[in-house]
Design brief:
With 149 residues, the chain is an alpha+beta fold. The protein has a single domain, classed as Beta-Lactamase, CATH 3.30.450.90. 36% of the residues lie in helices and 30% in strands. It has a six-stranded antiparallel sheet with strand order 3-2-1-6-5-4, with helices on one face.
């Protein structure tokens, strides 16, 4: 078995780059339903794919932010704030937990609340995103704020 030495940040950028020629909304819906993704069911790969597609979708829609939140009951909501606020089909609670965990690993934020700028290299360009976390008891959310484009 070959060891993958790429870190989460690098792998996330690769997912964003990989899906730049696709319809990100359609791919997000497929990923949320579990139709596409790693055939081996690797939770990290599924989480990175959804996170990468969410970032790419937000950038293509000129969003102010995207948010994924999980309630204490385990209900997940995926919200986009772009020309109004609306929701898209969210991933499962298990994938959401992994998305937030990976985002925390990228930013090195373990505290309940925090935010950190993350530079994303996208093909021949880059974008400065802000990852913002909020955890209260059994509820947790990740918001990704986009620069004005």
């Amino acid at each position: 078995m070959i060891k993958d030495d790429r870190n989460y940040h690098q792998r996330l950028q690769e997912f964003c780059d990989c899906y730049m020629e696709t319809d990100p909304k359609k791919e997000l819906e497929r990923a949320a339903k579990g139709i596409s993704g790693d055939p081996g069911g690797d939770l990290d790969e599924l989480a990175l794919k959804f996170l990468g597609l969410g970032i790419f979708y937000g950038a293509s829609e000129k969003a102010k932010k995207i948010s994924i939140a999980k309630s204490k009951e385990g209900k997940v909501v995926f919200t986009v704030d772009s020309r109004g606020q609306y929701q898209l089909l969210p991933p499962s609670a298990q994938v959401t937990d992994r998305i937030i965990s990976i985002a925390r690993a990228i930013t090195h934020i373990d505290k309940d609340q925090g935010k950190e700028t993350v530079s994303m290299g996208l093909r021949n360009d880059r974008m400065e995103l802000t990852f913002q976390f909020d955890r209260k008891k059994e509820e947790e959310s990740l918001s990704i704020l986009f620069p004005k484009l």
